[in-house]
Design a protein that fits this description.
single chain; about 325 residues; alpha/beta; Nucleotidyltransferase, domain 5; 5-stranded mixed beta sheet; 8 strands; elongated; binds zinc ion
């Protein structure tokens, strides 16, 4: 529409009858939904890779619409569903703001800034953040290959937001006891990376050889070389899986190749990034680890990873 025509249209809006105004409102809603890139892509995904979110059958057909969104029906279980079913967007309001919100998350913005940018309240901002982060937390490398570096880092235990504390309250900013001394105050996180920018992390209850083996086995290629700074904790894993193990101390480099500098640099970037949130509740730690992984992927693969995650419907079905 030419701008002069559009001004004319706007100037005539007050002449609309009540019914015409309602029709216009409905039409606008339909147009906004139809032009929403997330809906478009979720539909495209279902058309290209049909799968029922209830029974996983591939026999699905278009079946009218619901809330102005195309509806599908499974010919196997006869259930109907919309394209957001089983994704982080299911029953989420304000679809016109989803992409802006994901964009704010790509910029690591705090809850308050995301809320302000997208003009939503703080509770919605919190709920959206953790919905989207849940999908990020499920997305991590499956296999590490070549030279793999593994090391643990520690996050201070936080019951932020809990009404009932399992410990005596502490003043913000006070120093915790050393990580190795106090299990109640620190959560160990095992991070493993390879040299092709694949990262994996696991929240541990304690740093033990059994737990490390449980987490890492099945994720390391048979011919990889594992570099760590701990002989004992990783021995069981390496012996049982017949993996070559290089034990290094601090910044030691063997044969100009084997070191744990990559994983330590990852720890350091993760800790620096996490600081901006001024302590997050331990129960959400996996979500934040997933967020940071997603951002790291974005940096290396030059993609807007949250947008990408948003479009990969099948990966996030509950
Ligand atoms: Zn089905």
């Amino acid at each position: 529409m030419k701008s002069l025509q559009f001004i004319k249209f706007l100037n005539n809006l007050h002449k609309l009858t009540k019914d015409q105004y309602k029709t216009l409102q409905t039409q606008l809603k339909v147009t906004i939904i139809q032009s929403n890139v997330i809906f478009t892509n979720l539909q495209k995904e279902l058309d290209e890779h049909p799968q029922c979110p209830h029974c996983k059958s591939e026999k699905i057909i278009h079946f009218g619409s619901a809330n102005n969104r195309p509806r599908y029906r499974c010919k196997s279980c006869l259930k109907t569903f919309v394209c957001t079913r089983g994704t982080a967007f299911f029953r989420l309001h304000k679809p016109e703001k989803w992409l802006d919100y994901l964009q704010s998350m790509c910029q690591s913005q705090t809850l308050e800034v995301c809320a302000k940018t997208c003009k939503i309240n703080l509770t919605t901002s919190f709920n959206w953040r953790h919905r989207f982060l849940k999908m990020a937390s499920l997305d991590q490398a499956d296999q590490l290959k070549g030279i793999v570096e593994a090391d643990e880092t520690y996050f201070r235990v936080s019951e932020k937001g809990s009404l009932k504390l399992n410990r005596a309250p502490r003043k913000r900013g006070t120093k915790a006891k050393s990580a190795s001394l106090n299990k109640q105050e620190w959560t160990p996180v095992l991070v493993a990376v390879d040299r092709s920018h694949h990262e994996m992390d696991f929240i541990l209850t304690q740093v033990s050889s059994q737990e490390i083996q449980n987490k890492l086995q099945g994720h390391l290629s048979q011919d990889c070389v594992l570099c760590t700074d701990d002989q004992n904790a990783y021995n069981q894993l390496c012996n049982e899986r017949h993996i070559l193990h290089k034990v290094l101390s601090g910044h030691q480099v063997i044969d100009k190749t084997f070191h744990i500098n990559t994983v330590n640099a990852y720890h350091s970037r993760l800790k620096n990034w996490h600081r901006r949130f001024h302590g997050t509740a331990t129960k959400y730690l996996a979500n934040y680890l997933g967020w940071f992984r997603a951002l790291a992927t974005q940096k290396h693969e030059k993609v807007n990873v949250f947008k990408l995650l948003a479009l990969q419907q099948h990966s996030f079905q509950k």
